[in-house]
């Protein structure tokens, strides 16, 4: 009887885990080479917005000291940065020109707007976005802008 109960509980747990499985997405993008006298690596933020909620997914910024330049990611700062105390749990150091691919956890969100913002000290700023619907999962792309190259997004259910 005890074995039957344990087996039933295990089956129920595994079945529930399958129902609540969180989706993730692969986001690949380029940071373009910018020819300028003084080059600073861009800050990059990726987040999702659904109705009035915002979910931070990635932030690249200066590490190891107080970072006054985070405010240059203007929309991210207004929506998330100035309020969010746990941003450091998903951050990384700024990166130079090149191709990057990141896997981001979406949690249980199924429809949202994905934002990507990049800004450089003494440089430009880019803010791009696209609507994502996981119910019609597909590949998404966002054209390049001044501080960020073309962005490719694929959903992993």
Report on this structure:
- This protein is α+β, with helices and mostly antiparallel strands.
- The chain is globular and about 45 Å long.
- The strands form two sheets. It has a five-stranded mixed β-sheet, covered by helices on one side. It has a four-stranded antiparallel β-sheet with strand order 5-1-9-8, with no helix packed on it.
- The model is unreliable at 4-20 (pLDDT under 50).
- The two termini are 37 Å apart.
- It is built from two helices and nine strands; from the N terminus they run αβββαββββββ.
Structural features:
single chain, about 160 residues, alpha+beta, 5-stranded mixed sheet, 4-stranded antiparallel sheet, about 15% helix
List the helices and strands and how they pair.
Elements: H1 2-19, E1 23-31, E2 43-50, E3 53-60, H2 74-81, E4 91-92, E5 98-107, E6 111-119, E7 125-133, E8 139-142, E9 151-156
Parallel strand pairs: 3-4
Antiparallel strand pairs: 1-5, 1-9, 2-3, 2-6, 6-7, 8-9
Short description:
The protein is of the alpha+beta class and 157 residues long. Helices cover 17% and strands 41% of the residues.
Q: Radius of gyration, rounded?
A: 19 Å
Order of helices and strands: HEEEHEEEEEE
Strand order of the largest sheet: 4-3-2-6-7
| Count of individual helical segments | 2
Question: What would you call the structural class?
Answer: alpha+beta
- Biggest sheet character: 5 strands, mixed
Beginning-to-end CA distance, first to last residue: 37 Å
Helix content: 10-25%
List segments where confidence is low: pLDDT < 50 over at least 5 consecutive residues: 4-20
- What share of the residues does DSSP label as strand, in percent? 35-45%
**What's the total count of β strands?**
9
Mean of residue pLDDT values = 81
What characteristic shape results from the CA principal axes?
globular
């Amino acid at each position: 009887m005890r074995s039957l109960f344990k087996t039933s509980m295990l089956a129920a747990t595994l079945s529930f885990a399958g129902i609540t499985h969180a989706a993730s997405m692969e986001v690949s993008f380029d940071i373009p080479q910018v020819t300028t006298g003084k080059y600073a690596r861009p800050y990059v933020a990726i987040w999702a917005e659904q109705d009035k909620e915002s979910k931070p997914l990635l932030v690249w910024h200066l590490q190891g000291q107080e970072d006054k330049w985070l405010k240059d990611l203007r929309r991210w700062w207004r929506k998330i940065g100035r309020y969010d105390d746990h941003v450091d749990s998903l951050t990384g150091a700024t990166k130079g020109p090149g191709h990057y691919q990141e896997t981001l956890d979406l949690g249980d969100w199924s429809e949202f707007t994905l934002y990507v913002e990049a800004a450089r000290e003494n440089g430009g700023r880019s803010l791009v976005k696209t609507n994502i619907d996981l119910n019609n999962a597909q590949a998404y792309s966002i054209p390049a802008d001044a501080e960020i190259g073309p962005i490719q997004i694929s959903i992993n259910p």
